Amino acid sequence: MNFLYSRNNRKFHTVLSGSKCPDFFTSTDPTQLTKVTYSSTAVLQADEWFEVDLNTLPNVSDPLEKLNRQVNNSLPTISRIQYKDILYIVFKKSNEDYFYLQKILPSAKVYGKQLVSFSSQPDLIEQPIVIVAEFPDAIYEISTKKLIFKKLDFLESIFTGLNTLFRTATTAEVTQFFQLGGLLAIDPLYTVDKVGIPNRKNIAKALDIYNSYTPQIQQSLHAYIQTLGLPADAKGKYIITDEQSLKNFAYAIQERFYTTQASMQDRLAQAYVPV
């Protein structure tokens, strides 16, 4: 049987089941998707989806694993007054190993209004309505606990802790980065509190990379950065005055600047996936 569930605050409810539950999200076949292992530096192509194995993320909450255990028992049926509290819906198609998840935004809820259905027999609809999208926000493979999605930030409120996949640097880490190897000359007017979220993400990634290297690799990295022509002072320290110059240095730590071998063009990798 097909099932449509809802999550209202801390509880799951049954919305539709059996013959009353049609097929939703029919435009998406999980077995035919092009999947890319999630990386904070990757950018999806139009036909690609990210994939993450929740088994490898023990600190991430997994409400759909809980739902899978609960469906063996009878879940309460959602009531009319609970529709306005729906956080997300989960569709389970008969004989499939997937949950299809859609986050329900305020714009997807219609209640307190009169609507006319222009079908073969026009009718007045006065009951609460939840709009189901053509495509799911995420797909969850039940047996493997793999999460397939397009936008990670859409799922943070559902899978608590998932934001660790693209964590932002703390104030202490930004300070540490400013002092990295004595390489930087920071403008006194550009203080830690002025570092924005995008650069805090860049710093978190760059610090993790730099700290994972041996001293020998770090020295090789320093030599690579010297070839890039970043602005430096008389002592050879790289000048950081604003968000752009900080981003360039964080990108340098990640070795995003490169020269093509055939045409010798200097390029910047805006995104990359380790292979």
Q: How many strand elements?
A: 16
Question: Percent helix among the residues?
Answer: 10-25%
Tell me the strand order in the biggest sheet. 2-1-5-6-11-12-4-3
Count the helices. How many? 5
Oligomer: single chain
Helix and strand pattern: EEEEHEEEEEEEEHEHHEHEE
Main sheet record? 8 strands, mixed
Count up the domains.
Answer: 2
Gross geometry: elongated
What is the CA-based Rg, rounded?
A: 25 Å
Q: Give the low-confidence spans.
A: none
- Tell me the β content: 15-25%
Organism: Acinetobacter sichuanensis
Protein name: ATP F0F1 synthase synthase
Write the layout of secondary structure elements.
Elements: E1 3-8, E2 11-17, E3 34-37, E4 48-53, H1 63-70, E5 86-92, E6 98-103, E7 109-110, E8 115-117, E9 123-125, E10 129-130, E11 138-141, E12 146-149, H2 171-178, E13 184-186, H3 197-212, H4 215-226, E14 238-240, H5 243-253, E15 257-259, E16 266-268
Parallel strand pairs: 3-4, 13-14
Antiparallel strand pairs: 1-2, 1-5, 4-12, 5-6, 6-11, 7-10, 8-9, 11-12, 15-16
Helix pairs in contact: 3-5
Model description:
This is ATP F0F1 synthase synthase. This protein starts with a strand and ends in a 7-residue tail after the last strand. Helix 3 (197-212) packs parallel to helix 5 (243-253). The mean pLDDT is 90. The protein is built from five helices and 16 strands. With 275 residues, the protein is α+β, with helices and mostly antiparallel strands. Strand 15 (257-259) and strand 16 (266-268) form a beta hairpin. The strands form five sheets. An eight-stranded mixed sheet has the order 2-1-5-6-11-12-4-3, with no helix packed on it. Strands 7-10 form a two-stranded antiparallel sheet. Strands 8-9 form a two-stranded antiparallel sheet. The protein is elongated and about 80 Å long. The longest helix has 16 residues, at 197-212. Helices cover 20% and strands 24% of the residues. The protein folds into two domains: 3-165, no CATH class; 171-268, no CATH class.
